Amino acid sequence: MIDMSVLHDKPVLSGDRVRLVPLTVEHADALHASALDPEVRRLTGRHRVPDRDETEQWCRSRATDPDRLDLAILGRPGDRFVGDLSLMDFDPENESAAYRIALSAIEFTGQGLGQEATRLVLRYAFERVGLHRVWLQVHAFNMRAIAAYRACGFDVEGRLRDVLLWEGRRHDALLMSVLEGGFRRRPERTGGRPARGTLPDDH
User: Fold this and answer.
1) For the N-acetyltransferase domain, which residue ranges apply (predicted)?
2) Of the listed ranges 57-61, 83-87, 117-121, 189-193, the one predicted with least confidence
3) Where do the structural domains in the chain lie, given as residue ranges?
């Protein structure tokens, strides 16, 4: 069984091209702007757009939520907000949790930023939290994301039929997961170079 107490102290995870920091109110404007982007909404299947106050309240509450981990993705250098990610729906007895990631604009896709962020948080999930399995759902039309998840060690487990109704069309989603052993066996690479990353110091 994992120790959920490790989620009380939100980590900072650093890689070559991104830095993951606790999501706070300072990220509210950028996060809300990304929720208004039509293509980001389509890829995430987000029908309802929260208002600015809701977004701020959500960001303000992330640091004290003991049941999930929400991090902002900052591009390096410059620490520009490029998206956010979460580990959530923890199942301590079975050492499992769900994962989600969303880049804040299409201009940030295809650069390996999401892959590096995913590898950093998977290392944290397996090595510090003690998880055995991390899973996610991705819409079947999002081929770029599916390829990125595969590169990070995720495998397709199944298909959820017609889970999204978007502009009159129904779309399937794929259920994917990565196990601790599968992640460790896969070399970490970003842009043809080994991906370096640092885990936070123990508290």
Assistant:
1) 18-181
2) 189-193
3) 4-130
Three-class DSSP category at 82: strand
136, β-bridge pairs: 176
pLDDT digits (tens, 9 = 90+) for 28-73: 999 999 999 999 999 999 999 899 999 999 999 999 999 999 999 9
What's this model's pTM, rounded to 2 decimal places? 0.88
8 Å CB contact between 63 and 24: yes
CB 51 within 8 A of CB 58: no
Per-residue exposure over 150-178, b if at least 16 CB sit within 10 Å of its own CB, e if not: ebbbbeeeeeeeeebeeeeeebebbebbb
For the 4-130 domain, the top CATH level (class) is: alpha beta
> Which one-letter amino acid corresponds to residue 184?
R
**Beta strand residue intervals within 55-95, DSSP E:** 69-75, 80-91
- C-alpha–C-alpha distance, residues 156 and 144, integer Å: 14
Specify whether the backbone of 114 is left (phi greater than 0), alpha (psi in -120 to 50) or beta.
Answer: alpha
| Amino acid identity, position 86 | S
C-alpha to C-alpha distance for 22 and 100, rounded to whole angstroms: 15
